[in-house]
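Possible regression after last week's pipeline update?

I re-ran a chain I had predicted before the update to compare outputs. Posting the input and the new output here so someone can diff against the archived version. Not blocking, just want to make sure nothing changed silently.
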Amino acid sequence: MEPPRCPRSQRIPRNIVPPPGPIDPNRRYSISNASELLSQSNSKTYEDIAAGRLKVIKAGKRAYIPGSEIVRRSTLAVV
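New output (post-update):
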């Protein structure tokens, strides 16, 4: 048995992404999350890292971008 569906007028379109919440400068973000917060592609984020425009924290093989770097590069609210 299928669950009841919302009326069409109350459905949220799938292509609408909610705006990101405030950024915590003390947190580290994955490349994917940082790219989303900076409104750019993963490729552009990797280019910025290679060019030295974004600092990165390495943890083993993984790379993280500090929240402070995202705050420095964006106009999003800070926690």
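Follow-up from reviewer: compared with the archived run. The mean pLDDT is 81. Marking as no regression found.
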